[in-house]
Amino acid sequence: MYNLYNPLIQKIEVLKLEKRLDEELYYLRDALPEYSTIPFNMESVPLPPGAEVPLNRIKVKLRPPPWSKRWELSNCKGLACVWDVLSEQRKDTLI
What Gene Ontology terms for biological process does this UniProt record contain (predicted)? Predict the structure, then answer.
């Protein structure tokens, strides 16, 4: 996270513009690295002017708990099945 104004930042370039299934993407903090990182040498993907922003429908898989939030209780559309990652003991407390 960067401040809105920081004299050290000379420019910000958008490499790829896309929408996600959810408005808030806090679950990316607890996701596997391939869902929340980009390659250092990624080329920009230009979007024609006036074109609709594409929707990324990928379902994100989480790392094993502990998590920063109780994602099994949230209603996030962009998460893969969270129940697969939970331990049997934690599943029993929720049922």
Answer: translation
Residue 80 vs residues 6, 36, 57: alpha-carbon distances, Å: 37, 15, 11
> What digits encode the pLDDT tens for the residues 51-84?
999 999 999 999 988 989 988 888 999 999 887 7
Q: What pTM value is reported for the model?
A: 0.75
Element (H, E) at 56: strand 55-56
- Closest residue by Cα to residue 84 from 67, 68, 72: 72
Query: Taking phi first (over 0 means left), then psi (-120 to 50 degrees means alpha), and beta for anything else, what does residue 54 get?
Result: beta
Q: Which helix (H) or strand (E) holds 74?
A: none
Q: Of how many residues is the chain composed?
A: 95
Strand 55-56 and strand 19-20: pairing? Answer: parallel
Point out which residues pair with 20 in neighbouring strands: 56
